[in-house]
Design a protein that fits this description.
Blueprint (H helix, E strand, L loop, with lengths): L1 E10 L3 H19 L1 E7 L4 H7 L5 H8 L3 E6 L9 H13 L4 E7 L17 E7 L3 E10 L7 E7 L2 H16 L5 E6 L5 H15 L6 E6 H10 L6 E4 L1 H14 L7 E5 L7 E5 L16 H13 L3 H18 L9 H12 L4
Parallel strand pairs: 1-2, 1-3, 3-12, 5-10, 8-9, 8-10
Antiparallel strand pairs: 4-5, 4-11, 6-7, 11-12
Helix pairs in contact: 1-9, 1-10, 1-11, 5-6, 7-8, 9-10, 10-11
Bound molecules: nicotinamide-adenine-dinucleotide, 3-isopropylmalic acid and manganese (II) ion.
């Protein structure tokens, strides 16, 4: 059997609810594919912070480093100042483990409702490759004259040649493997001229290594419009950390909802474990009610299985989700609990659907 050492960070709010279903489905897939998931759970998030003041102790980061992959629910809680857990845990892991390629597919599965009239599944099959370690997320900047009328807050966007080049090359390689072989750079080079020019130049230079991939460019404001009006324009999208964050919530909304949007924080070199998590957050407004959709987390485990080279298991779980989504079209919204959806997907994976 192939053993996968999986670190699990359920986190806050609906995080533990959806992670439980992701693990349920993985457990159902394991026997047929001869995989043994060895899971270690890490209690991090709001409760840990209230009890100990810790977000991510160094010793835990070291332990995480030794795993094959990390499955994360979500972090963030109204009782904790905004940013403490998001920066102290989530971003710290993305940075420490060089998760520079944040994969966020925007796919409309057959049977799933979209608010876009006339859009078919074949019109919406986008892979957003969001840069994961730089941009305005880097934490550069500061505050001057705080609390005075002359206060100045700056938040710098960091764009390194190395950081831009590695994610752009990764996105080109992804585009080269897809039927349409198209890469769209999404930026704002008409205003963010320093960073935009670097991204454009790197896309030109790296693009020379991929003559089979056609290159397009869209300003991020126009891209937001086209995600809604003409999603078929896009195949692979490469973009900076913040733009990628925003357009993938938009992508989730047009592709059936935030409860279905999956992501993988990938370190392509496998120097560190990659981390898989739904695009959504801890959803404090519905936490503890069994109403969260676990599909995004299950689809994130599909990205994980693919990353680990467990293709057959990945296809099996994806197929089970896709069948579940087709059946769902006939059900009332909220008809099934979080656990019931997980049960139904797990049964299909185990061949008892
Ligand atoms: P959110 O994604 O948690 O929620 C936005 C809306 O979507 C809410 O109405 C919520 O109920 C709904 N929603 C989210 N996931 C759902 C699911 N699986 N099924 C059904 N409905 C779902 O975003 P927010 O409200 O902006 O943020 C809440 C907290 O989560 C904040 O602390 C934020 O910093 C944090 N956050 C964490 C992550 C992460 O850990 N990766 C991602 C985003 C936000
Ligand atoms: C996401 C989240 C995070 C981000 C926050 C919670 C730091 O919104 O994973 O999309 O902005 O990357
Ligand atoms: Mn986000």
């Amino acid at each position: 059997a192939r053993t996968v050492n999986l670190a699990v960070i359920p986190g806050d709010g609906i995080g533990p609810e959806v992670v439980a279903e992701g693990l349920k489905v993985l457990t159902a897939a394991a026997p047929e594919h001869d995989i043994a998931f060895e899971t270690t759970e890490y209690a991090l998030g709001a409760r840990r912070w209230h009890e100990t003041g810790e977000t991510l102790p160094d010793s835990v980061e070291e332990e995480l480093r030794g795993h094959d992959a990390i499955l994360l629910g979500a972090v963030g809680d109204p009782s904790v100042p905004s940013g403490v857990l998001e920066r102290g845990l989530l971003l710290r892991l993305r940075f420490a483990f060089s998760h520079y390629a944040n994969l966020r597919p925007v796919r409309l599965y057959p049977g799933v409702g979209t608010p876009l009239a006339g859009v078919r599944p074949e019109d919406m099959d986008i892979l957003v490759v969001r840069e994961g370690t730089e941009g305005p997320y880097a934490g550069m900047g500061g505050v001057l004259r705080k609390g005075t009328p002359d206060e100045i807050a700056t938040q710098d966007s960091v764009n390194t040649r190395l950081g831009v080049e590695r994610v752009v090359r990764y996105a080109f390689a992804k585009a080269a493997q897809r039927p349409r072989r198209k890469l769209t750079l999404v930026h704002k080079d008409n205003v963010l001229t320093y960073a935009g020019e670097l991204w454009q130049r790197v896309v030109r230079e790296v693009g020379a290594e991929f003559p089979e991939v056609s290159v397009d460019y869209s300003h991020v404001d126009a891209a937001a419009m086209f995600f809604v009006s003409q999603p078929q324009r896009f195949d692979v999208v490469v973009t900076d950390n913040l733009f990628g964050d925003i357009i993938t919530d938009l992508g989730a909304a047009v592709a059936g909802g935030i409860g279905m949007a999956a992501s993988g924080n990938i370190n392509p070199e496998n120097d560190f474990p990659s981390m898989f998590e739904p695009v959504h957050g801890s959803a404090p407004d519905i936490a503890g009610q069994g109403r969260a959709d676990p599909t995004a987390t299950v689809l994130s485990t599909v990205i994980m299985l693919d990353h680990l080279g467990l293709d057959a298991a990945a296809r099996k779980v994806e197929q089970a989700v896709s069948e579940d989504l087709r059946v769902r079209a006939g059900l009332a919204a909220d008809e099934r609990s979080t656990a019931a959806i997980g049960d139904d997907i797990a049964k299909r994976v185990a061949g008892q659907g």
